[in-house]
Write a structure and sequence with these properties.
By secondary structure, this protein is an alpha+beta fold.
Length: 143
């Protein structure tokens, strides 16, 4: 009984993130028929919009799962891209999924910086005697 109770505490936590897509509403968007107002009325506000080029609205949704004390992993991912022409009419509605997700593994190396390396004690005690020293601004007559 104790093992069953302990195992239930380690079950995965499922979280919906972003836009929750309804397949019926998504299939209702028709190129050449709908415009920006009808898409906004059907799907709501987009997750984000394109900043350059052709106007495109993106509806992004993800379902993640995680176990306690572990980073979450993406289980499902969907992006609906609705493109509009200059008149605001729907040109295309394209759906993509997990196949376009890119996992980045950052390099653990440090970025080199200009200057010299200072140790812990030099950082801690480096300014002793520097405040009010001659030739270092402040503290002199006529300032």
């Amino acid at each position: 009984m104790a093992a069953a109770l302990a195992a239930s505490g380690c079950s995965a936590i499922r979280e919906n993130r972003g836009y929750i897509q309804d397949p019926v509403l998504v299939s209702a968007i028709q190129p050449g028929i709908d415009n920006q107002q009808s898409v906004a009325a059907t799907l709501g506000r987009p997750t984000f919009t394109s900043q350059f080029g052709q106007t495109t609205w993106y509806y992004v949704s993800s379902v993640t799962g995680r176990r306690p004390f572990v980073s979450p992993t993406i289980r499902e991912h969907s992006v609906l891209a609705v493109s509009f022409d200059a008149g605001g009419n729907v040109v295309a509605a394209e759906q993509s999924g997990l196949e376009k997700v890119v996992y980045l593994d950052p390099d653990g190396d440090e970025t080199p910086t200009l200057g010299r390396e200072r140790g812990f004690f030099e950082d801690l005690f480096g300014n002793i005697g520097q405040v009010g020293a001659a030739g270092v601004g402040g503290g002199g007559p006529g300032t």
